[in-house]
Design brief:
three-stranded mixed beta sheet; 20% strand
Length: 139
């Protein structure tokens, strides 16, 4: 018998996600995307197609790659983005998002609706903030 009883929290990804996601198009330049990340104080930008579906993601790690490889600032973002990013449905449980991020060692999960369109973003920071709130409730 486990020491801690496991219970699913009924909270959904849509309850904690950020709705104003910073996005880019595949042909935008790395410098433009980096500036957008800096100005919006975010660690990733979701690259979307014309229908608003995620086709890639550019993270701080990708920008480190750009600098380490001395790529030109006008390099198209499609050359450095992670294609076909891991996404999660807006109706998934927060615990599922946590597990997915842990298993895949990722810090950003684009959130999609049933049609596959981008509707939000859940980051590691959002999960930590969520857990801090939960822990404060148990005091």
């Amino acid at each position: 018998m486990p020491l801690i009883k496991r219970r699913e929290l009924p909270l959904r990804v849509s309850d904690i996600m950020v709705k104003n996601v910073v996005t880019a198009k595949e042909n935008e330049r790395v410098r433009e995307v980096a500036i957008r990340m800096y100005e919006n104080k975010v660690g990733s930008v979701v690259v979307v197609d014309d229908e608003g579906r995620p086709v890639g993601i550019v993270t701080e790690r990708d920008l480190v790659y750009v600098v380490a490889r001395a790529l030109a600032p006008d390099t198209p973002v499609w050359m450095v983005m992670t294609e076909d990013p891991v996404v999660i449905n807006e109706n998934a449980l927060v615990t599922e998002a946590m597990e997915k991020m842990r298993q895949l060692d990722i810090r950003h999960l684009p959130v999609v609706d049933s049609a596959g369109k981008l509707v939000g973003m859940v980051s590691f920071r959002d999960i930590v903030d969520f857990m801090a709130v939960l822990m404060s409730l148990t005091k």
